[in-house]
Automatic annotation (TrEMBL):
The organism's taxonomic lineage, starting at the top: Eukaryota, Metazoa, Ecdysozoa, Nematoda, Chromadorea
Source organism (scientific name): Acrobeloides nanus
Protein name: C-type lectin
Domain of life: Eukaryota
PANTHER family given in the database record: C-TYPE LECTIN, C-TYPE LECTIN-RELATED
Residues annotated as domain C-type lectin: 298-392
Length: 461
């Protein structure tokens, strides 16, 4: 065991300067690392992809060809099929194709595309229009209407991906598209990818940045460029990222800046702020008792900053202090919990507040707290919540990804009287299908503005 630890630590030093990797002994495929990559195995991905292609005159015939070949190449790595039943073990990706200029039109639905050659045929049949208008609102409305039908995107808990290939933002109503999407699609299971074919058009570029704005990191994610010489790879990566998501009620995806690729990336774990049901003697079973895996670990400043950006403000109240997994073990040494609730030693990153850790033989657990209301620090405190008076705890679980569909199949053990600021889990069995899921708005956006859940589709202006 020691040899494995040393070897892994050595590899981490060589290849991943900002993260230390420790192989977990019981589940060797799961690394104890903040930036645990999502599966990159496109052949077993299980996405519902809608390609939405601008055919206004601004696109140009050459770009249409480029879209057809880039989308075909990227999706040729995926298993294309029209089966939506993941529980039967058939992992395939469904693809639909839509065009828009002055209005949107479906070119092919999921059932029309059962192979990559069906997709190529559909894409190659697309013709450029003479319309100067590029209205993105109308295709989005049509997709929302589709969610009422028999074979909607997102059925059976599948993640939905909207991929816009855009060359113009020429339609006044486009200003409302970011809100239309934000208010009607569940940001946990829906990913928007945009491919910009005219980055010189600042109206278009800012529209696509607004559409792809990720509220958890307050920056656009998956806003690709049509002139990128890695467009096919960018598309494949973004699609696999879309398959890496947190199921209903499992929390927020870990999103960290990947400096090697100069972009934000999702990683394969989800975090949620949970609360003990009352005073408990130790913290290590609160998370698992509620269906999550373990108290969260924080091994890098990168992850701590992400956590700080989210759990600072819970609807006007502070979310801290909250427990994380760092604790003193029976050997009086600090340790974190891994994915099997076994212990592993700290990897070098600590963020103790001034005067901490105190060595009083009592304060054997750790809470994340803040002195200035901005920056987080750690304090050690008793594990018995009767003495710490801290009930909040940050829990961590696996996200779904191309090779893991467990997150859509977990049930959670929740009270309805959770304090504000907790993501309200949708109890298993209360879900009435994809449409309800898509219409479920998260409670709070990054800037604190409350989003009102829309019960009916907004009318086109
Ligand atoms: C992808 O997953 C399938 C099913 O688990 C497996 O058979 C295949 O070897 C994997 N491919 C890669 C490249 O890991
Ligand atoms: C979900 O759980 C049920 C019961 O444990 C199991 O039969 C089914 O195969 C699971 N489905 C998936 C997609 O894992
Ligand atoms: C960008 O928007 C402004 C204001 O709506 C408009 O005047 C301008 O013509 C637009 N530019 C393009 C290239 O569409
Ligand atoms: C995507 O957004 C980032 C951050 O705002 C920006 O730097 C980048 O230029 C955008 N990409 C495109 C193609 O617009
Ligand atoms: C804290 O941990 C130390 C070392 O394992 C142990 O001796 C002590 O009893 C623990 N204190 C409490 C309150 O559990």
């Amino acid at each position: 065991m020691k040899a494995i630890l040393l070897f892994s630590a050595f590899c981490a030093f060589l290849f991943a300067s900002n993260a230390t990797v420790i192989r977990n002994k019981k589940s060797p495929q799961v690394d104890v690392v903040d930036a645990q990559p999502c599966s990159s195995n496109a052949s077993v991905a299980w996405l519902d992809v809608i390609l939405i292609i601008d055919t206004s005159m601004h696109m140009g015939a050459a770009n249409l060809k480029k879209i057809s070949s880039a989308a075909t190449l990227a999706l040729s790595k995926f298993t294309i099929g029209s089966n939506d039943d993941i529980s039967s073990g058939s992992f395939n990706t469904r693809v639909a194709v839509m065009t828009y200029n002055y209005q949107g039109a479906f070119q092919a639905l999921f059932t029309d595309i059962t192979s990559i050659s069906d997709l190529t045929t559909s894409l190659n049949a697309i013709k450029l229009s003479t319309s100067p208008y590029a209205d993105l609102y109308d295709p989005v409305l049509r997709i929302l209407e589709w969610t009422n039908s028999n074979d909607p995107p997102g059925s059976n808990g599948r993640p939905t991906v909207l991929v816009f290939f855009s060359a113009s933002a020429n339609a006044p109503v486009n200003m409302q598209v970011p809100d239309l999407i934000a208010e009607n699609f569940d940001p946990y299971s829906t990913t928007v990818i945009t491919v910009n074919f005219n980055t010189a058009d600042s109206n278009l570029t800012s529209l696509l940045s607004a559409i792809t704005l990720n509220q958890f990191v307050n920056a656009p994610m998956y806003n690709l460029s049509g002139t990128s010489n890695s467009l096919t790879r960018d598309l494949e990566w973004s699609l696999l990222q879309a398959n890496c998501f947190c199921g209903d009620g499992t929390g927020i995806p870990t999103i960290l800046y990947d400096s090697a690729n100069a972009r934000y990336s999702r990683y394969a774990s989800c975090m949620i702020l949970d609360q003990a049901d009352g005073y408990v003697e130790g913290i290590n079973d609160i998370c698992s008792g509620d269906g999550f895996v373990m108290p969260a670990y924080i091994l890098t400043q990168n992850k701590e900053k992400f956590i700080e950006g989210i759990w600072n403000d819970c609807d006007g109240e502070t979310c801290y202090p909250f427990y994380v997994g760092l604790h003193k073990n029976a050997k009086d040494a600090w340790a974190w919990y891994d994915w099997d609730l076994n212990e592993f030693p700290p990897t070098g990153y600590f963020d103790w507040g001034q005067g901490y850790p105190v060595n009083d033989g009592m304060s054997n657990c750790t809470v994340v707290d803040s002195n200035d209301g901005v920056n987080f620090i750690w304090r050690n405190t008793p594990c018995n919540t009767q003495y710490s008076l801290v009930l909040n705890i940050l829990c961590q679980s696996h996200s779904c990804d191309a090779e893991n569909s467990d997150c859509i199949n977990t049930s959670y053990n929740y009270d309805d009287d959770q304090p504000k600021g907790y993501k309200k889990p949708i109890k298993k069995g209360t879900k009435t299908g994809a449409r309800k899921r898509m219409l479920t708005k998260i409670k709070k956006s990054k800037n604190g503005k409350k989003n009102i859940m829309k019960n009916k589709l907004p009318l086109k202006a």
